[in-house]
TrEMBL record:
Pfam family, one: FAD_binding_3
Transmembrane segments: none
Biological processes per GO annotation: 3-(3-hydroxy)phenylpropionate catabolic process
NCBIfam families in UniProt: PRK06183.1-3
Record-given protein name: 3-(3-hydroxyphenyl)propionate hydroxylase
Location of the FAD-binding domain: 6-349
Keywords, ordered alphabetically: Oxidoreductase
GO MF annotations in UniProt: 3-(3-hydroxyphenyl)propionate hydroxylase activity; FAD binding
Organism: Amycolatopsis mediterranei (strain S699) (Nocardia mediterranei)
């Protein structure tokens, strides 16, 4: 029998793999998702997404479902070892520039169940659990061979794929197959992660509490109506097993639960997690790509670990779909690593910096924090920086036209703003290129954009989009299917020339 062939095999059915498969399916690309687990992986991991990543969930069609399982976070409180407030950065309860809360707390297994249910609605995606990928091989320019074993029955199988996406986590089989290695960015800490359920009202401020203590750094956050997460840095020689007994665990929780009896707390999970900072030396080998934890690992101090994987999926899916159906040239795939790797590296470095500032320095560090943080918290500009959910712009690539010495909107996310007809930008663009202009788009430009699969959007004076263009010193922008600005400028004809397959002479 001949080996079956599919356009894309996704290895790993975590949030990154499910997001990539769902986005590809929306473009009509058939995907086979292989995962070693029969269902959702239960261990505690990510608990935070910002509004940029929430916007990706909305593209998947699960915005309302995610809102039902998530909990808006009201900011950040920094505490000293004696639980005294050093600084507090409060965030409003409303939505951000993309139409969603700027900080969202959630339980990852609940998110994964939501994403699995959603992807099963697609006729273009086959999800196969209890399947261990044992080999990924590509010879020459042809398709990639993926070998796998059924973990229940032991049967072996193979499939050929035009492309393979390695979304299989920190111990990635796909990464090993392409000979990529993880480069250590010199950060490693062991932490105890505790998830608790209770109907009791702990009466705590509804934001993240970070205890800045070199001896026992800790984090507390509410992640749902009756769900709470604590993280405590482990001492040398300690393990999670030391805290399975509630009698030993409860003293760590007491600063937040002293009014709540121990018997009212249900310990859902206790696990040890090692926070690392690592980055794969390369993210692609011909037809094979790495995404999510297979490509990067970050400490959790700015809550960008899981979000980075979803950003990878959103960046790559539309490019891969275009390369498969011939609407985009093959070389657009070169932009994936060129754009995503520096972005991930920058956020990892920021997370390391915050982690070091909060957890190291001994007594001298504690004294410095007690002196400096209250002063910094009273600086409005710093508060805005701490609470701003906008991540850095993407670097220059074939799909990000950024001048080297001039500030530009290129590489940044275009706000998912409400338009004149009441819809948000993403509802109108629907995964297509868009020409967004501060003045009405002339019929000739509109016709050409539409003829090539794009859409023209007018942002009249007084709207959020118009103000954003003006502040960015642009009259119009070309927005990619993932919401990123490809190019900004003042002349529509020049901008339209950057849309795929557009001939500037058509606009003369």
């Amino acid at each position: 029998m001949s080996t079956p062939r599919v356009p894309v095999v996704v290895v790993g059915a975590g949030p990154t793999g499910l997001t990539a498969a769902t986005l590809l399916a929306q473009y009509g690309v058939e995907c086979l998702v292989l995962d070693r687990w029969a269902s959702v992986y239960p261990q505690p991991r990510a608990v935070h997404l910002d509004d940029e990543v929430n916007r990706i969930l909305a593209r998947l069609g699960v915005a309302e479902q995610f809102a039902a399982i998530s909990w808006p976070c009201h900011g950040l409180r920094l505490l000293d070892p004696d639980m005294r407030v050093l600084a507090e950065f409060r965030r409003g309860a409303g939505t951000g520039r993309h139409g969603y809360p700027e900080a969202n707390m959630f339980d990852q297994p609940e998110l994964e169940r939501l994403l699995r249910t959603n992807v099963k609605r697609s006729d273009n995606v086959t999800l196969r659990g209890d399947t261990e990928v044992t080999g990924v091989t590509q010879n020459g320019p042809g398709p990639v061979r993926v070998d796998y074993t059924d973990r229940v029955g032991g049967a072996h199988g193979s499939v050929l794929a035009d492309y393979v996406l390695g979304c299989d986590g920190a111990n990635s089989v796909v990464r090993t197959a392409i000979g990529a290695t993880m480069r250590d960015l010199r950060f490693e800490q062991r932490w105890l992660v505790v998830d608790v359920a209770t109907d009791a009202d702990l009466g705590e401020w509804e934001g993240v509490h970070q205890v800045c203590d070199p001896d026992r750094a800790a984090t507390y956050m509410r992640i749902g109506p009756g769900r709470y997460r604590w993280e405590f840095r482990l001492h040398d020689g300690e393990t999670a097993e030391d805290y399975r007994d509630l009698a030993r665990l409860h003293p760590l929780l007491l600063p937040w639960t002293e009014q709540t009896p121990a018997e009212a707390l249900e310990v859902v999970r206790i696990a040890e997690y090692t926070f690392r900072a690592r980055l794969a030396d390369r993210w692609r080998d011909r037809r094979i790509f790495l995404l999510g934890d297979a490509a990067h690992l970050t400490p959790p101090f700015i809550g960008q670990g899981l979000g980075a994987g979803l950003r990878d999926a959103a960046n790559l899916a539309w490019k891969l779909a275009g390369a498969l159906d011939g609407t985009l040239p093959q070389d657009v795939l070169d932009s994936y690593e060129a754009e995503r790797k520096p972005h991930a590296r920058g956020l990892i470095r920021l997370a390391k910096l915050i982690g070091v500032a909060m957890t190291r320095g001994g007594r001298a560090g504690n004294l410095l924090r007690r002196t400096a943080l209250p002063l910094l918290a009273r600086t409005p500009s710093l508060g805005r920086i701490v609470l701003d959910s906008e991540t850095p712009a993407l670097c220059r690539s074939g799909l990000v036209a950024r001048p080297r010495l001039r500030r530009t909107l290129a590489g940044r996310l275009c706000p998912n703003a409400v338009l004149e007809d009441g819809r948000r930008l993403d509802e109108v663009t629907a995964g297509r290129f868009a020409l967004v202009s501060a003045s009405p788009v002339p019929a000739a430009h509109q016709a050409v954009v539409e003829r090539h699969g794009g859409v023209g959007v007018t942002a009249p004076a007084g709207t959020v989009l118009h103000d954003w263009l003006r502040q960015g010193r642009a009259h119009a922008v070309i927005v990619r299917p993932d919401g990123t600005v490809l190019r900004a400028g003042r002349h529509l004809s020049e901008l339209c020339a950057f849309l795929p397959h557009l001939d500037p002479e058509e606009l003369s």
